[in-house]
Design goal:
The complex is a heterodimer of chains A (about 210) and B (about 170).
Chain A lengths: L9 H8 L5 H13 L1 H20 L7 H9 L19 H6 L8 E4 L2 E9 L2 E8 L8 E2 L4 E7 L2 E2 L4 E2 L4 E4 L8 E2 L5 E7 L4 E2 L2 H10 L2
Antiparallel strand pairs in A: 1-2, 2-3, 3-10, 4-11, 5-8, 5-10, 6-7, 6-9
Chain B lengths: L1 H6 L2 H20 L5 H17 L11 H18 L19 H19 L3 H11 L5 H7 L1 H22 L4
Helix pairs in contact in B: 2-3, 3-4, 5-8
The chains are: A alpha+beta (about 210), B mainly alpha (about 170).
Chain lengths: ~210, ~170
């Protein structure tokens, strides 16, 4: 595995730490941090600032019952939320989005497959499977798109993206990512708007596949 | 916190509650929550601290930083009614003894960070607080907090270098 060269921008890590990042992007950040020590360290530095601000916040007295209520619950049974770990190329947060089940790929044509992980007013997150040499259809962006490589690599007008690398694209970037030779490329892609395709037919299919 | 983690010390936990619960309540109310809503979140956060104490690693985080993230996660989960994506936890190494020098260095650095924050102009500090209270988008953070972030950036950078060193080989 080559070194990660495309990281999460600092402002995005700060927004993630403070909880102000749309869910699909938060999934990309959490997945990248799971495999990138540099960004984990940077995120923890932001948490340190957040902690310092918490320490400096003016205290508001808690009602007397609160402490008694918390202390009384220390031994109460509780069911911890399941913790998902990496499975193959898929990091823990992606496995959590899949609820631990193996991905159920849907064919998009030309050997390209996808699994839709979430789609709502915040945007969408999906896994993409792109065979070597195959292109993701030529597309521009209505909003912001983050793509994290989980297996293989792809190249486009911006550069080459290997495992752990994140490409961030906005309205200004019109690009055609092509999977490199070798392993099929598996990516986690998140957008806050539907992609728009230039070719007529993919545009017709867009609502069908919700790509 | 270490007494809570290692000995399940209830008196230590009660002291932790006395210190953090009022601050957490004030912090959460600043995001617009009512006193009662804030207390519900405080209760969840304090119980999470107790239940997940073994996840606390003093080499990598101050208690306040750890609690900050738990509180933000909980606030978002409550608002969205669904789990927020969180990074895979690093595997703890229970065999390794705590490195006092490392913990002390982190404390020192956090103190300097707090001093840097307190020396900011009021408007700059407000901007930073807004960012970490989750009131700014990443675009706003990257365009508007440039100035005050720059002031404390050197502290963050230092912390980053050290954390990066720490994290090497932990996975």
């Amino acid at each position: 595995m080559t070194a990660i060269t495309h990281h999460i921008p600092d402002a995005m890590l700060a927004a993630y730490a403070s909880g102000n990042l749309a869910q699909p992007f938060a999934l990309v950040v959490a997945s990248h941090v799971s495999i990138c020590d540099d960004c984990r360290a940077a995120l923890e530095a932001h948490q340190a600032v957040g902690g310092a601000i918490l320490e400096g916040t003016r205290a508001v007295a808690a009602s007397p019952d609160l402490k008694a209520s918390v202390l009384a619950q220390l031994d109460a049974p509780h069911s911890p939320a399941p913790e998902y770990r990496r499975a193959g190329p898929l990091p823990g947060p992606v496995m959590a989005a899949l609820k631990g089940a193996p991905p159920r790929w849907k064919r998009l044509g030309m050997g390209v497959k996808q699994v839709l992980l979430s789609a709502d007013q915040d945007g969408s997150a999906r896994l993409l499977y792109i065979p070597p040499g195959q292109a993701v259809p030529d597309h521009g962006h209505n909003g912001l798109e983050m793509t994290l490589v989980l297996q293989g690599s792809f190249s486009d007008e911006v550069g080459r993206f290997g495992v752990g690398d994140v490409e961030i694209a906005d309205e200004s970037l019109d690009h055609t990512p092509i999977a490199d030779a070798g392993d099929p490329c598996i990516c986690l892609a998140a957008t806050d708007a539907p992609l728009r395709f230039h070719a007529f037919v993919p545009r017709l299919l867009q609502p069908l596949f919700r790509i | 916190m270490l007494a809570v983690r290692d000995n399940r010390d209830r008196a230590a936990f009660a002291a932790l509650f006395d210190h953090f619960a009022p601050r957490l309540k004030g912090f959460i109310m600043r995001s617009g929550a009512s006193g009662q809503q804030a207390e519900e979140v405080v209760q969840d956060v304090m119980l999470t601290i107790w239940r997940k104490a073994e996840m606390f690693d003093p080499h990598r985080a101050q208690v306040s930083a750890w609690i900050y993230q738990i509180a933000r996660n909980r606030q978002i989960d409550v608002a969205r009614k669904e789990g927020r994506p969180v990074p895979e936890a690093l595997k703890a190494e229970p065999e390794v003894e705590d490195d006092a020098a490392q913990i002390y260095a982190l404390e020192q650095e956090t103190t300097v960070l707090k001093q840097a924050l307190s020396r900011l102009r009021d408007d700059q500090r407000e901007m930073i607080e807004k960012a970490y209270l989750g009131e700014m988008t990443h675009q706003e953070i990257s365009t508007q907090t440039g100035l005050p972030l720059g002031t404390i950036k050197s502290r963050i950078r230092l912390g980053l270098e050290r954390l990066r060193h720490e994290l090497k080989g932990m996975r």
